[in-house]
Amino acid sequence: MEIIDYYVKSAPNVQNALDIFQGEWASKLPGDLSLLNAGQSGLFDDARITWAVEQLGGVTGQTILELGPLEAGHTYMLEKLGAASITAVEASTRAYLKCLIVKEVMGLHNSHFLCGDCVEYLRSNPGKFDTCFASGILYHMTNPAELIGLIAQVSDRVFIWTHYYDENIIRSTPYLSPRFAEKTAAEYQGFKHMLYRQEYGEYKGEVKAAGFCGGSSRFSNWMSREDIMSCLTYFGLTDIRINFDQPHTPHGPCFAVVAMRR
Question: Is 207:200 a contact under the CB 8 Å cutoff?
Answer without folding.
Answer: yes
